[in-house]
Every structure is written in C-alpha cells, then in structure tokens.
Amino acid sequence: MGAGAIGCLYADALDRGGLQTSLILRHATDQQSVALIVEREGAKEQRYLNIANHQDLEPILHLLVTTKAFDVYAAVSGIAHRLNENSVIVLLVNGMGLAEQLNATYPHLNLYCATTTHGAYRIAPQHICHAGLGETRIGRQGLEQPPDWYGLWDDAIENCHWDANINTALWFKLAVNCIVNPLTALHHCPNGELATDRSLSDKVAHLCDEVSHICRAAGHADIADLLPQSVARVIRQTATNRSSMLQDVEHGRPTEIDYINGFLLQVAEQHGIAAPLNNELIQRVKNHAV
Ligand SMILES: NC(=O)c1ccc[n+]([C@@H]2O[C@H](COP(=O)([O-])OP(=O)(O)OC[C@H]3O[C@@H](n4cnc5c(N)ncnc54)[C@H](OP(=O)(O)O)[C@@H]3O)[C@@H](O)[C@H]2O)c1
Q1: 164, 192, 216 — which closes off a domain?
Q2: Is 43 exposed, middle or buried (0-12, 13-18, 19+ CB in 10 A)?
Q3: Is there a single domain that holds both residue 157 and residue 40?
Q4: pTM
Q5: Structural domain boundaries enclosing 59
Q6: Is 74 in the pocket of ligand 1 (CB under 6 A)?
Q7: pLDDT per residue over 189-216, tens digit each?
Q8: Domain identity same for 172 and 151
Q9: 254 CB near ligand 1 (under 6 Å)
Q10: Please, which of 114, 180, 245, 271 could form a disulfide with 185 given CB 3.0 to 4.6 Å?
Q11: What letter would DSSP give residue 32?
C-alpha cells in the first residue's frame, strides 16, 4: 500500500521473488491489473501486478506500507476492516512515531518496522527509476529470531537483513535525516554541498550537537557519539542526491518534517531539553512547503 517510488520497487522485488503481490492504490479503479515498469542502469523491465479491489473484504495476510509518513494512519485506517491479529504489517516509511500512533487505535495489529537505503523516484504512475542500490532492515524491537514469513521476504529482497535492534537503525536514520533533509530543503542544494559550503558545514556541526544531545537523552549514546562522522559519511556517499524533503519543497508538496524533526522535538520536550535549531528548521520548512 503506497504504490509510489519505494512501494513499486518492493512490489516488483516481492513479485519477482515468487510472492504473489497486489497493489493497494489510493483511489478505487475498474482496472484489475497494472503494468509496473522499473528502470535501472538504462534497462527497463515490466511486469503486471494485480490491483486490490477496494470492495474486497478478505483479510490481508501481509501488508507492506510505503506511503509517506503523514498518510500512514489514514491509509491503514482505510483498510483496517481487512486486518486482524494474523495480518503482518511492515511499515517501510521514513520518520518515527507511526507504529505507536497505529498501536494506540489498533492494539491487535501485528506491526514490524523497516528502513531502506535504496533510492528510487517516480517517472509516472507505477513507472519508477531505481536510482541507487541499498540495503533493507526489517525487525521488531527485541524479537531476536525472525518470524517464519521473513524467510520469503529475505529471499525476494536483495540485501535484506533481520534486525532485532531495529530501533537503533530507525534512530540512526532519523538523526541523519534531521540534519540532511531540512538543510538541503531550505538551501535548495544537493547533499554534497552541506560539506563543501563552509556556512552550511557550520550549520551541520551545530545541528549535530543538538541532535546528539537528544539522542543521548533517548538512550542512543552510540548514535550520538558517532553522529558527526556518520553524517559526514552519508553526505559524502550521497553527495549528488537531492533529498526527498528538498524535492517535496520544490514541488510544493507536504513534507515528512513532523515525523522527522517534529518527532525529535517531542522527545527533546519529554526530556526537558531545549532544541532551538530543530524548532526553527521545522517552522522554516513548513513556511516553504504546503
Ligand atoms: N524514494 C526514495 O528513494 C526513498 C528512500 C528511502 C525512504 N523513502 C521513504 O519511503 C516512503 C515512501 O516514499 P516514496 O518516495 O515512495 O513516496 P511516493 O513516491 O510519494 O509514494 C507514496 C505513495 O503512497 C500513496 N498513498 C498515499 N495515501 C494512500 C492511501 N491512503 N492508500 C494507498 N496509497 C496511498 C501515494 O499515492 P498518490 O500517488 O495518489 O499520492 C503514493 O503513490 C517515505 O516515507 C519516504 O521518506 C523513500
């Protein structure tokens, strides 16, 4: 559910891996299937996937959620009647606080979280470009051994890992995104400029201090200690990338800032920590975006 860039990338991999995969689109359609096109390294592959019927009442066994963070709650609520305690739901969405939000209303849901470093963008509906290879981590905090279903996903998705400490992976991504995303969005620059432009690298350093302080208070001292080096590495490895928040701001689309810097700010408040830089970035990104 969420057949955008990442959703189509994973639907393609799962279906190719032999797991019969259907797309849940936002709006009802008379179409029963759709041609899904994935471009990578100049080659184009096409396969047909079923479209889930909006009238269908049958329980869903495995649901991969790949909407933007701000759409997750409404999207899952829209199909809650098809989910029960046997439904496996994997949230592959940037940002934090989503599982808690869903759990509060739907405590019976069987939720897992995932994070990816793959890069993809939409060319047209159900036509995407897989722009950067990466890895996928899936887990539920504290669940050491993967459940049975995971083996099939692991076979289908290249470079996929079960992560019993998924919270650390999510917090790491959150900490880096809190720095890279808003700064690139506000300064309209590719990631690499955060290292090469002196005034921007100073901002990165100050923001690293603030984010590290909050990570440490939240019990992630390991992430806090290495944050400046980790951010520098990500900026170097993704120097030519234009962050998703930058693209959202440029296209006048809503951003995921409430679930990234907004979540961090909530944690800071819970611990009585001032976070003026994050606060300012949130306001400025919101003034730029829809
Ligand atoms: N793209 C990347 O390279 C990348 C990399 C790492 C992580 N991520 C994260 O992955 C998540 C998805 O990103 P994305 O780039 O794939 O976004 P995207 O291209 O905007 O795709 C999101 C999709 O969700 C659909 N959607 C929204 N509400 C829905 C609903 N109620 N029911 C069904 N579908 C619904 C949207 O439909 P409409 O088309 O109708 O709006 C859209 O097709 C985000 O959290 C993003 O930060 C992305």
Answers
A1: 164
A2: exposed
A3: yes
A4: 0.96
A5: 5-164
A6: yes
A7: 999 999 999 999 999 999 999 999 999 9
A8: no
A9: no
A10: 245
A11: S
